[in-house]
Amino acid sequence: ETIARLADTGTCVLDVEVLRLRPDSQMDDALRILDAGALLRARGVLVICNDPEEDRLVERFAAVCEAAGARGLRACLEFMIFSSVKTIADAQRVLDRAGHPAGAILVDALHLQRSGGTPADVGAVAPQRLPYVQLCDGPFRPILPDSAVALTEARTGRLFPGDGELPLAELVGALPAGAPLAVEAPVADLAGRTVGERTRLAHAALTGLLAKANQANDQADAR
C-alpha cells in the first residue's frame, strides 16, 4: 500500500528508521529494515548506536554499510549525547574505522548543539559524508545537558526551525549544495493536530527560515 501511495503522489522516501545497533543486535533484524528501505526506494537508513564496545560497534556498522550499499542505500549514523556515538567527532571516527563508502553522518541540529558541536564542525566534514540533515530549533543552551534531560527534549521539547535560538542558517550554509533538509521537530503542544496540519506548519517554518537566510546572504553580498 505504501509503494502504491508513493507512486500515486510522486513522493520519494528520504530515509527509513531506525536501525539500532545494540550489544545483542542481530544482523537479520538489520536486513529486514534495509530490505524495506530498498523496496521503498529510500535514499538512506538512519542508524543509532547503543553499544558501548566500540570495536564491536564498528564491526557491525561496517556490516550494515556493506548490506546497505548493496541495496543502494546510505547508512547514516546519527550522533547524540545519550547514545554511544555522542559527537560529530565520534561519528567521524566510527566512519573512518568502518571504512565503507556507504557510511555517512546524519547531523541533527539539536544533537549537534547539545553535544557542543558547531556549524564549522559540519563544514569540516567531507561533503560526501553528509547526504542530508535534520533541522529543528530550541534554546541555544544548555550544552552537554544531563542525558535524561536531553532525551526528553529530543522526543517532546523541540521547536520548528526559526522558532528558537539555534544557528540554523549557519548550519544550512555549512552543508553541501543541494543536501536535502528534513524537519525533525516533535512538538508536544501540536500532538493533537493532524499529520497534514503538522506537515504544513513544518514546511512553512522551514521555507521561512530559508527565506531569512537568503535575505541575510544577499545583504552581506551587497555590503
Structural description of this entry:
The protein has 223 residues and is α/β, with parallel strands linked by helices. It contains 9 helices and 6 strands. It starts with a helix and ends with a helix.
Order of helices and strands: HEHEHEHEHHEHHEH
User: Based on DSSP secondary structure assignment, what is the total number of beta strands?
Assistant: 6
What is the residue-mean pLDDT, rounded to a whole number?
95
Sequence of strands across the biggest β-sheet: 1-2-3-4-5-6
Q: Count every helix, treating DSSP H or I runs of 4 or more residues as helices.
A: 9
Instruction: State the helicity in percent bands.
Output: 40-55%
The largest sheet is:
6 strands, parallel
Structural class: alpha/beta
Inertia-based shape: globular
Distance between the termini: 53 Å
* Beta fraction: 5-15%
Poorly predicted regions = none
Features:
223 residues, alpha/beta, 6-stranded parallel β-sheet, 9 helices
In short:
This protein has 223 residues and is an alpha/beta fold. The protein has 9 helices and 6 strands.
Strand and helix layout:
Elements: H1 2-9, E1 15-21, H2 27-39, E2 44-49, H3 54-70, E3 74-78, H4 88-98, E4 103-108, H5 109-114, H6 119-123, E5 133-135, H7 147-156, H8 168-174, E6 181-183, H9 195-222
Helix pairs in contact: 2-3, 3-4
